[in-house]
Amino acid sequence: MEKILCVYCGDLFDPSPRHKNQIACKKPQCQRAKKAEWQRHKMKADPVYNASQKISQKQWASANPGYWKRYRNKNPDKAERNRVLQTIRNRKARSKKSGTKMDTPLIAKMDALKSDNFQALGQFWLVPVVAKMDSLKVNIVKIPILYP
Ligand SMILES: [Zn+2]
After folding, report:
1. How far is the CA of 3 from the centre of ligand 1 (A)?
2. Of 34, 113, 124, 138, which is the most buried if we count CB atoms within 10 A?
């Protein structure tokens, strides 16, 4: 059988003959990503599932007090990402409520970059403002240009 490309890691893998339309290889991180994507879709598409998940999450959080505080302390980059995304969600909710259009910059200190030699290299979150899409983590790396 012909190898296919994993949509999560980009590696070629041998598809299982029992699973049609297989899109992910069997690496644990790809299986986790596939499950997370399924759950995000299910949360949006199925209001009953969404409500039961939220109840379940609240029960779990009250059974594990302090978990999220410890998680944020251990993962400052994820906490910062969430702060940015929550700021955007709050603004969207506020602009929806007041009926005004969002015209202010989404991220504070956007105009703080005045340097000419700014290079957009590193890790960024692409956060859609208009479309209802999940944010996307991207790595911007410099590729040297090879002149013939
Ligand atoms: Zn994979």
Report:
1. 12
2. 34
